């Protein structure tokens, strides 16, 4: 059985409390024509550092979190998630509000055609995405105001360089 555990750590200002989130996902079905959300199930637990107690919250509602720790921004933990079917999946960002224990999809910028490999990150206190376009170039995006799609800003486009190791060395 295929399984993965991802974590997140953040601050709940409404409770003046730090929280650890653990998402355990496991493959419950093995049918190629099903969406990730239908093939995988999850168990989500939150630990309050104030009380040192774990509680189970609503299962992860969107697809499969991608082997990455949650990125904390403005009271929410954010994970990259595969949504759709294996082989034709899409990459979305899902947030967990630490005060309300609720999930939502974070709207992304329009990356354009060919941006097939994305990496979720942080720049200062802002959510960021590195979007790769094959071996041509990569765009670096930052969400200036969390939760507002129109605040995504492309900071820089970085062209790929040719392999710096000469062929005769290989």
What would you note in describing this structure?
Helices cover 2% and strands 56% of the residues. The relative contact order is 0.14. The protein has one helix at residues 36-39; strands at 3-12, 17-27, 40-48, 53-57, 64-65, 71-73, 76-85, 88-97, 102-106, 117-123, 126-133, 137-143, 152-159. With 170 residues, the chain is mainly β.
Mean pLDDT: 88
The chain-level structural class is: mainly beta
Poorly predicted ranges: none
Largest sheet: 5 strands, antiparallel
Question: How far is it from the N-terminal to the C-terminal residue, by CA?
Answer: 39 Å
Number of helices: 1
Keywords:
170 residues; mainly beta; five-stranded antiparallel β-sheet; four-stranded antiparallel β-sheet; 1 helix; globular
Task: Set out the fold topology.
Elements: E1 3-12, E2 17-27, H1 36-39, E3 40-48, E4 53-57, E5 64-65, E6 71-73, E7 76-85, E8 88-97, E9 102-106, E10 117-123, E11 126-133, E12 137-143, E13 152-159
Antiparallel strand pairs: 1-2, 2-3, 3-4, 5-7, 6-7, 7-8, 8-9, 10-11, 11-12, 12-13
TL;DR?
With 170 residues, the protein is an all-beta fold. It is built from one helix and 13 strands.
């Amino acid at each position: 059985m295929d399984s993965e555990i991802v974590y997140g750590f953040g601050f709940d200002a409404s409770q003046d409390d730090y929280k650890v989130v653990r998402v355990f996902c496991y493959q419950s079905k093995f049918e190629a024509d099903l969406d990730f959300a239908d093939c995988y199930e999850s168990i989500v637990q939150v630990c309050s550092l104030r009380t040192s107690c774990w509680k189970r919250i609503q299962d992860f509602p969107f697809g499969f979190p991608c082997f990455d720790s949650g990125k904390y921004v403005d009271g929410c933990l954010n994970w990259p998630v595969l949504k759709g079917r294996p082989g034709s999946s899409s990459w979305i960002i899902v947030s967990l509000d630490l005060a309300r224990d609720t999930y939502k999809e974070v709207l992304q910028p329009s990356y354009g055609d060919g941006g097939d490999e994305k990496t979720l990150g942080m720049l200062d206190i802002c959510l960021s995405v590195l979007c790769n376009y094959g071996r041509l170039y990569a765009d670096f995006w930052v969400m200036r105001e969390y939760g507002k799609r129109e605040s995504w800003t492309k900071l820089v486009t970085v062209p790929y360089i040719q392999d710096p190791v000469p062929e005769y060395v290989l």
